[in-house]
Fold this sequence. Notes:
alpha+beta; Nucleoside Triphosphate Pyrophosphohydrolase; 2 domains; seven-stranded mixed β-sheet; 3 helices; binds iron/sulfur cluster
Amino acid sequence: xxxxxxxxxxSNPLCNTCPISRNCKSFIKKDFALTKIKKKNKNKYFLLxxxxxxxxxxxxxNIKFNFLKNFNIFPMHELIKPKNFTQNINFxxxxxxxxxxxxxxxxxxxxxxxxxxxPKKLRNYTLPSFTKKxxxxxxxxK
Length: 142
Ligand code: SF4
């Protein structure tokens, strides 16, 4: 901890007093440029189901996915290595690149922990921006 705070500072590291300089790659190479390790986003594929009744959309409480846990989202499920996948929307979330295909459904089945939202009153709901963006996409692509 102290080495990082007192000796190996981001600018002007005190290499001459550093106890590990003999084994330090930066010191040996005389290269002190900070390099960030970029995490690669993982591609994931989802089928999002849109149920509409009286101009309202059905949302469900998310107890299935680790992202947006307990938030209200559209019913969806993950597709593993889908063939001929044509996405409608793409989201970047944490370390995930979400490719989402939208499927419109007429049949309304009973889904637990679900409720209907009016897209015209979107501001009144406490929803994640993920869900709001999808509602806006659906409204703009009717
Ligand atoms: S020798 Fe390496 S670890 Fe020590 S201060 Fe210099 S850059 Fe940091």
